[in-house]
Amino acid sequence: MEALDRVVKPKTKRAKRFLEKREPKLTENTKNAILIKGGNANLTVTETLKDIYALKKPFAVLYKKKNITRPFEDQTSLEFFSKKSDCSLFLFGSHNKKRPNNLIIGRMFDYHVLDMIELGIEKFVSLKDIKNSKCPEGTKPMLIFAGDTFDLNEEYRRLKSLLIDFFRGPTVPTIRLAGLEYVLHFTAMDGKIYMRSYKVLLKKSRCKIPRIELEEMGPSLDLVMRRTHLASEDLYKLSLKQPKALKPKKKKNISHDVFGTSYGRIHMQKQDLSKLQTRKMKGLKKRPAAKMTEEDEEISPKKLKSV
C-alpha cells in the first residue's frame, strides 16, 4: 500500500498519459469492476463470475487466480486490488460450509469500501446452458427493477443503487431504437432477488412501431441477501457530491413542469390600453363633438325635406 500511496513522477510520455487517466476529473470515466475468486471458490461461483464478466466486458477485470481474503473481516486486500486496477466496483466469489455459493458485491469511494452486500446463490443457469443468440460485447443494458421492496427497504434500496452502478455501462448522449438489444430484469419477492437477462427482438408489425419480444439468453440467478456493510448517511451523501463546475447554473424566471416543458416569465411595465393600436374601422371612428354640431348647422332645409 505504501508503494501505491507515494507520489510518482512519470519518466516517460506513456507513464505520464497513464497517470493523467487516473487523475480526478469533472466528468468521471465509466466505472470498471474487478471480479475476484476466493481461495475456496467452487464451480458454481467460478462460472457465475465468468458469466457476469462476459456481460460487463470491456469495463471489467477478471482475476483468474484464487485470492484468500475475507472482505467483511479485512478490506485492505480489496482496496489494494481496486487501486492497482483502477476499479471502483468489485464482485468477490467464495464458497464454504457456513455460506455456500457466496457473492459479495460492492463499490469504492476514494479507494475505500463504501457499500458491500453479501448474496447467496440458490439457483444458477449459465450462458452456455441457454442455447439462444447472445448480444455483442459492450452492449449497454436496459435495467428493470420490479417489486416494492426495492423502494421500501433501506438495504434493498442500496442494493438497487449498487446494481445500477455495476451494470449501467457508459453514459451515452443519444439512443437509437436498434441499439436497445439487451434487458437485465431484477425482481424482489418473498425475500429473494431474481436476476434474468433477455435479448430484445424487434419483429415486424402493421404500424411504424415494431412488435417487441423478449428471448431469455442467460445468465439466470436466484439470490438471497445475507450480510450487509452500508456506508453511513454522511459518507453516502459525500460520495454523491458533485463539483460546482458540473452543477447547472440557475436561470431566472424559467420553470419546468413534470413533463419537462420549459416556461419563461417576462416582466413588463404597466400598459396604457387607451393608446393601444387596434384595427381601424370607419364605423368605430370617433369624431369630435364640435365638428358634429357644425356639420348639422350646414345642412340645408331642402336636404332635410328630401330626407
Describe the protein in words.
This protein is an alpha+beta fold and 307 residues long. It has helices spanning 2-5, 13-22, 43-56, 76-85, 149-152, 154-167, 233-239, 289-298, 301-306; strands spanning 33-38, 60-67, 89-94, 102-109, 112-125, 142-146, 182-189, 192-203, 211-216, 220-229, 254-256, 262-264. The chain contains 9 helices and 12 strands.
Strand and helix map with partners:
Elements: H1 2-5, H2 13-22, E1 33-38, H3 43-56, E2 60-67, H4 76-85, E3 89-94, E4 102-109, E5 112-125, E6 142-146, H5 149-152, H6 154-167, E7 182-189, E8 192-203, E9 211-216, E10 220-229, H7 233-239, E11 254-256, E12 262-264, H8 289-298, H9 301-306
Parallel strand pairs: 1-2, 1-3, 6-7
Antiparallel strand pairs: 3-4, 4-5, 5-10, 7-8, 8-9, 8-10, 11-12
